[in-house]
Design a protein that fits this description.
By secondary structure, this protein is mainly alpha-helical. Helix content is about 50%, strand content about 0%. The protein is flat and about 35 Å long. The termini are far apart. The model has no long low-confidence stretch (mean pLDDT about 85).
Amino acid sequence: QRRRVPAYNAVVRQVASTEAVAVVDVQREFAGRVALFADESHFTPEGHRLLALTVLARLREAGAVEHAGPD
């Protein structure tokens, strides 16, 4: 039931590419994991927790964060 999300994300990726900024592609990261969403675009508490860990991991990979939060 996430009909609008792919179109929205396509625009986000396009703008990020134009502006040369990184994007954490949550649609791809969380594909098929419907239990993490309360509705089409809002996370459950567990979804928020996993999103935070995913963003932290990407920041570490990019060298933007040396160490922060749980491992």
